[in-house]
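Task card 7
Instruction: Convert sequence to structure tokens.
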Amino acid sequence: MELHVPHGSIRSIRDFLIHIGIVTVGVIIALALSQLVEIYHRSRMAAETMEGFRREISFAETQVEQVMDAIPAWRNQIETDIAQLSAMPDKNAGVAPLKYPETAFQLIRKASWETAIATQVLGALPPEKVKGYELAYEELKTFVEEERAGVGYWYDLHSYGENATTLSTADRQALIKELRRYDAFARFLQEIGKDTLKTCATAVN
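Output:
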């Protein structure tokens, strides 16, 4: 910004001070307006960011709830399979094929959180809200990591096939052990899910 002194208009110290005062006030007003625009812009970005957090976490909540609703059926199927395998079926007996429990693996969206970090807009948000969102994303990450482990267990189960009559005694015992491991995974995932849903509910409310 260039300042030009009007020639011939300053004839005394008083005129000079008046001119300086006018220029100073103009600069202050310009800076204040610029600051207001910046505050408005950051406020709008903060509101949009928080709304993005709520959308992502709310969607993730529905996914976790779906898995939580399915877990009891997984565990019931495990009990059925263990009972069938423990009966030591004869190779010639007509035995229904094994039905293994289902598995799940969610993909948690974190675009809003990652964008907020990249644009440094987190500093414009209430610290307690930022902490709540951060905890929610961390809980969701833990839930997904445990699901990923469960997918590996699920593939281990299927490696034994569905026909229990073709399995040796040692294989049946090994499969029962794998089923119990999957049941332990399901129980642990259920507990993680409960904590995750609580954390997410706190964050979005």
